[in-house]
Amino acid sequence: MKTIGRLFGILSLIGLFLGFIPLLGWLNWLNIPFAVIGLLFSIIGKSRGAIIICLVAIFLGVFRLSIGGGII
Question: Which one, of 18, 42, 44, 47, lies nearest residue 30 by Cα?
Fold first, then answer.
């Protein structure tokens, strides 16, 4: 579970950075649920580093959607 959580966290960070590119902000709508699933796997696997990675991806994804008009 630790490995899956960390993998999901890393992939969600990659998706997050792609979401900061103009016209690709919609990618965060897919990235945030992916990071939440990674967070759940990280909590089950008790991997502190993966939990932090997933939380950062969730926070920054929500922030990007809020500044880009994706959240009303």
Answer: 18
